[in-house]
Amino acid sequence: MAEVQDGYYDSSTDILRVEPIYESFLCPLNKQVMRDPVTIESGATFEREAILKWFKECDSSGRKLICPVTMKELSSTELNPSIALRNTIDEWMHRNEAAKLDVARKSLTSEGSEGDILQALDYIVEICQRSRSSRHLVRKVGLISFIADLLKNSSTKVRQKALESLRFVAKDDNDNKNDIAAGDNIRTIVKILNHGHAQEKEQAVSLLYELSEYKSLSEKIGSVPGAILILVGLSSSKVENLLIVDRAEKTLDNLESCEKNVRQMAENSRLQPLLRLLLEGSSDTQLSMAAHLGELVLSNDVKVLVAQTAGSTLVNIMKSGNREAREAALKALNQISSYDTSAKILIEAGILPPLIAELFTVGSNQLPMRLKEVSATILANVVASGASFETIPLDHNRQTLVSEEIVHNLLHLISNTGPGIECKLLQVFVGLTTSSTTVQSIVDAIKSSGATVSLIQFVEAPQREVRMASIKLLNNISPFMGQELADAFRGNFSQLSSLVRVIADNNGISEEQAAAAGLIADLPPQDSVLTRRLLQDGAFGTIIRKVMMVRQGEIRGGRFVNPFLEGLIRVVSRITFILDNDPDIVAVAQEYNLTVLFTDLLQMNGLDTVQIVSATALENLSRQSKILTRIVPAPNPGFCFSIFPCLGQKSVATGACRVHVGICSARESFCLLEGKAVEKLVACLDHNNEKVVEAALAALSTLLEDGVDIDQGVVVLCDAEGINPILDVLCENRTEALRQRAVWAVERILRMDEIAYEISENRNVGTALVEAFRHGDFRTRQIAEKALKHVDKLPNFSGIFSKMGAQ
Prior knowledge:
This protein is mainly α.
């Protein structure tokens, strides 16, 4: 296809029926068709730019100013536009362009070769760069639809050139842009943008940018499925070339003129346009943006960004907007507040006072219940962030969220609303009672309000979330209100039974189950009424089975398994606190073989609470052994033992327990020896946790109490290599409670002369006993004095003690 290149005439155009060029159309200086012809003093006509350049060269070189055609000297540089010639040239060019465009159209519509199509598109690009009227001509002859059809061509080169051609056709011509956007052309461009080669992408995004410059097309571009998502991805790409990234970014900037597009951008993590409209838009626009923000699913990072950028604006809308605006703001704040960091930012923005006001407002200005539920949800989210609520004033009286009156009002709301608000407000109290700095204030307010019974009733709620929030709250306050809760449960045993059913659920281990177990475990263990009710409900059998399933790995519960297991074991241990003078309870302990169970649990290293509870339970069980053992007459100890007691043990009946001097077993009489618990308790004396050591020592001390054979108890401790660990506990003096127990145990041990003799060599023990005698409480000093007297039988220690006592 022949064409005019840079204004030069190609003789091959005769074949294409293009008018020949006239000599007068060409500038004498640059030999190109003139666009802006001007006539000078000599009467010669030139292209304006070319003759100006000539004049400048003459001046700069010092030559005379002459006409480049006539070579005559000029007295003036005045330029006179040759309007007639320019019009003639324009008409000639338009006729040529029309003829060539006609040829191009035929090339595009016929079964031409790829080369013919590319040549036709090249000419269209060239002609569109000449003037706006040329681009208008392209539309007039109907070429736009033919070029657009080439976007679906199988040739990458053709598609790429078609995109480039359409970009030039669209330049500064809104009518052309409308034609290009007709049908599914934009969809095709977006498809190329997503799947095309790099150069195709460049042309596609550049064309979209050109189209987006026409605001009327913004909504149409944005309505193409995936268009905004793809553009957002390209604008933030680290792998695409800079031109693509830049054009994608600028296209998105243009598309922001349509609110629908802004909402789509927000849905695809481009929040800044929406936030800008939220901050700077009209009231209606702010309402629209806030409403949409509340519908989005935001990542945590984006929640923080929104809170930082628009948190104060949303809080202000919630405070002063009309009902519709408040609803939109509340829904947006609900979304943002669900992440701890962004919730804390909202607290700094002042969200708490208006939020509490929304909840407590009654009358014509109050929000409907569905929005009060949103307010309660936001409050629950904010409280869960862990901020210091005791220092944030809510009103002019400087009341805080943990002030008694505020807590009473919240408790009143819980009792007088539906399940949705009940659940969220219960979660508020869960958050406030999780914090060690606020839990006591909440406990005091609950006590003063008399709301304990009403809170407990929610453990029977049919809605699982309400029930779970209630159980978690009660679990949090149970360490502070164990007796009050026990009294309330005794008033309605069905609620206690509901907790047992929660624990019995076989669907893994949930947070609700862990909380239910912890709640029951915190009730006073000596409360025999509650324990008997648990027995009646079959709770202990269920719980022990659960413990065994967890130990054997049959139940997995992730992060809740340890608190669940600890709670279960504490509940089982309740049985051991009410054994005294109660054959029925003793029978239960025997039925479940609790001595063996708790002995086994002593080995759960890493779960200190389990070890403490197990050791304490073994202490309680062991105290019953001297009562439950079956006494049989002991045989004569023999002549040798009477003379040399250190050569043997006291004679006991065959098969009898040395300590309890009767027939014992782990199951029937809870004997620590028969249950193989002594060695395991001794191992616990080396624990880092003083509470574990104290519980283990207390259990071992039952072998040295009155009513058992203390000497044999000492022998048992010797056999288990437990004497030195007990002495170490005394010498370490880690806590006052441990010292008291250790002094008591050591005094009992020192009653055996052989042991006293051995210990007399240990100055650390003597010093520890002296310190206990000097600094302990009255009872400890008495016992330490006895222990020192035992050791004072030896001369070398007596001298040391008498000197120390004389000080």
